[in-house]
Amino acid sequence: MSGSVSQSVPPTVLQAGQRAPDFELPDAPDHRTGTTQFRGRPAVLAFYPADWSPVCGDQMALYQAVMPEFERYNAGVLGISVDNVWSHRAFAEDRGITFPLLADFEPKGEVARQYGVYDEQSGVCQRALFVLDGEGMVAWSQVAPSGINPGADGILNALDGLTGIDSGRRPVL
Amino acid sequence: MTTTPFQVTVARLVVPVGPDDHTLSDGQVSLVEYGDYQCPYCGMAHTIVQDLLRLRHETVRYTYRHFPLTNVHPYADLAAEVAEAAAARGKFWPVHNWLFEHQRSINPRQLMVGVERLGLPSEEIAGEVGAHVLLDRVRRDFVGGVRSGVNGTPTFFINGIRHDGGYALEELLEAVDEAAEATV
Hints:
The complex is a heterodimer.
Chain A: E1 24-28, E2 31-34, E3 43-47, H1 59-72, E4 76-81, H2 85-95, E5 101-103, H3 110-114, E6 118-119, E7 124-125, E8 127-132, E9 138-144, H4 153-163
Chain B: E1 3-5, E2 22-24, E3 29-35, H1 40-55, E4 60-66, H2 76-87, H3 92-101, H4 108-117, H5 122-130, H6 135-147, E5 155-158, E6 161-163, H7 169-183
Parallel strand pairs in B: 3-4
Antiparallel strand pairs in B: 2-4, 3-5, 5-6
């Protein structure tokens, strides 16, 4: 599975068991980062439509607050949208976000297309989550309706599955 | 390990209401709120919940749990810790109400002003909050909320199922009444 998108076949969301295409995107004007930095540990990819969601329950702000739980699994988190790095920087400062927000800006939505989560009609990423294992394989994925914040419970359950922590030994609870 | 079709996911409360919780009334319908003392939407929900409890005090058992988003609301953790310190002295609800009624002026100094006004030992509580004695208690609420699918504040659960509708008084009344009928 190359992850590339054929012109004639409608793109489908990458599923558990498929190889996640590696990529690097800018997270700052002079810096790029991506999936390869997470080899050997789980990675959470959170595609989202746009910076500046107008509610307290913003998905990226929530993930920042949940970061100590992700860190218990030694998991890295990347937020990805088609916004440019300057928007990301202002958004991250406003919401206190310290994990990388990547700009899938040029060519627009190229990485989202590879993962099958680009919304051609609106020209933005779908609200989609992927948990990758330490070898870069998709362990779990989920696409939420764009207006609904999917929360973090699905991610944590997927990380439980990866690390073999059963529900009786979940962190904290 | 699979791809989850989001539409079929029903978010359920994974931590049942227990003796450590802050609970009001004793009706058969459990209403659990995850909130943040600095969140303006929770401030609005606070007065709505008070109205709801006045109208349905025989039906509802209300539980409040902490879900502070500290990266957005810098003193939300601190406020929750103060509420827990008050709880240890049997005064959770007076402090809880004060926090929502004064949420725009919440800062470390004002928190202690509030504590003193309510007749609590401010120096003792400042010491406990400074040493984060109660942070684990707050964190436990937060993580339980994350595990249950809390995706922002306020989030309500009615009889253990996340309430994805609005939280205007009419909507909450309808949801609570429906749950009451279903349990009869």
